Amino acid sequence: MISGVKGAATHDTSAAAATPGASHSGPTATPSAKKKRALATRPSTPGPAQKLADLDGIGRPASMYQQVLDALAPRCTENRPRLTAIVTSTLEDLKKNGVDDEDGFSVLQHLEQPVPAGNPRVNCASVAAAYATLREGN
Fold first, then answer.
1. How many CB atoms lie within 10 A of CB 88?
2. What is the pTM of this model?
């Protein structure tokens, strides 16, 4: 009996015994190290607010878009990525129909203003469509 544990000599729980090849020389990558390398080489996908900032391309910080998205998202049935797609398609529709004084941020703001806080959540795609119709009629 070693240090009060029966059978301690028969069960080697050292790192060398538990890790195959641990006695070999050379570096071995742990799964977490491999994952870190994979994440470091994978291009990051911009979030919804950054996508809208990039769409406008005027240097307005993505944090401004994020603030409006954060206020709007709990009021809508759509999630943030879907709201971003709605803003993008609404802006494209407006421009296609001759409305050139809008950008993604202004469409997002005009979408946020009429949507009430609280429940029930609103279909914000319908609100965006109504806004586009209103603007295109002027």
1. 16
2. 0.67
